[in-house]
Each structure stands twice: as structure tokens, then as C-alpha cells.
Amino acid sequence: DPIDGTVNYRTGHPNCGISVGLRRNGEPILGIIHFIANDEQFFAAEGQGAFHVSHAGATPELLCVKADNVPASLATSVIAFDVGYENGPYGNRESQLRIQRLLANGSRYATMDACFLTSVRSVLLGHRVAYVNPGPGIHDVAASAIIAKEAGAVVAGLDGAPLVLDRSPAPTIIAINHCIKDQIVQLIASA
Distance between CA 24 and CA 40 in Å, rounded? Predict the structure, then answer.
């Protein structure tokens, strides 16, 4: 994705980035994310771990999701979500808004960053316990999925099954642990 957070980029907001992902048979195997405004980077390769570079010139540090002190309940957690493109190719706007309402009512706080990469970063750095997006394209998810997986996060489809990136849209949950992922899947299935 040459510019994720296009609206942010066009309006001068720093929440935007570049992502490059490589897939083999629908499975992400390599990912690089670069945040333009601060030269922050995340990268991973299958079986090699995930790494974080906080700013230009910094040494890459092994990245592990911060699962310390994670609330056991979604009701006391902060999550990030997106509803996709209003009139774009990804999904049905009505179902996206239904998921948004469910998540907002089922969690303590729910936020939108208007950038897939920024929301993933918030999970990887422990600021949110999950990110849910019912309608991203493969280009949005390919790099983030392998980085999150290698960092120890749970990456799944909205039905809870392992995420396979073989077509768009690619409804995605990236969660800090299985407990939170399972609660999100239950909440979505209850509607």
C-alpha cells in the first residue's frame, strides 16, 4: 500500500504510512511498515520475529505485544476499529456500521484512527487490545498480518478462523490475545 491513510496524508495529518507485504499461497511471509512523519518502522519475516525501529537511526528492537495488565474483559478494554470505505469496493456499509455499533457498545472505549497501519501500531505497542476492520483490502493487511503474528498477536478473520489473504475484502481482527479475539468474535456473531 503506497499510502495508507490517504485522507490523513492529503490533509497533512501524520497518521499515514507505507506498507509492503509479500505473500506465499495467501499467507503473509514478509512485511515492512514505514510511518512517514517520524521515520518509525516495523518489519518481520516468517519465523524470524518482528522488529520495531522507533525513529531514524535507532537500533531495531525485538517487538513483542504488550500483554501485561490486559483486561480479561472486552467491556473494560480499549479497541480500535474502522468501517471501511463508504462507497468503495470493500463490503456493505450497513454491516460495517453494525459492527462499529456492536464494538462501541461492547467495549469500554472504541477509537478510529482513519489509517489501518496506525490502528495496528496501537495494538503492537499496547495502546489498544485489538483492531477490527470488516473491509480492508489485501494491500492493507499483508504487511501488518505477518508483523502482528511474529510479535505474538492473534490475527484472524471476523469469524475467528485464521486469516488467509486470498481475496479482498479481507475482514480482519488483530488482537493482543485469544481471550480478547474470542470475545470480539462472539460479539459480532451475536448480531
Answer: 26
Pairing mode, strands 109-111 and 78-81: parallel
Q: pLDDT tens digit string along 104-157?
A: 777 777 777 778 888 899 889 888 888 988 778 888 899 999 999 999 999 998
Instruction: Note whether 9 and 116 are within 8 A (CB).
Output: no
Q: How far apart are CA 156 and CA 127, in angstroms?
A: 19
- Dig out the grid coordinates for 71 from the structure: 483486561
DSSP string, 15-67: --EEEEEEEETTEEEEEEEEETTTTEEEEEETTS-EEEE-STTPPPEEE----
Q: Is the pTM of this model over 0.70?
A: yes
Q: How many CA atoms lie within 13 A of 121 on its CB side?
A: 24
pLDDT digits (tens, 9 = 90+) for 26-52: 889 999 999 988 999 999 999 999 999
Residue 152, all three cell numbers: 505474538
Phi-psi region of 36 (alpha: psi -120 to 50; beta: other; left: phi over 0): alpha
Give the span between the Cα atoms of 14 and 8, in whole angstroms: 7
SS3 content of the chain, % helix, strand, coil (to 5): 30, 25, 45
Measured CA angle at 96 (ends 71, 2), to 5 deg: 90
The count of C-alpha atoms lying within 13 angstroms of the C-alpha of 184, restricted to the half-sphere facing its C-beta, is 36
Q: Name every residue whose Cβ is closer than 8 Å to that of residue 30 and which is 6 or more positions away in sequence.
A: 21, 22, 44, 45, 46, 143, 146
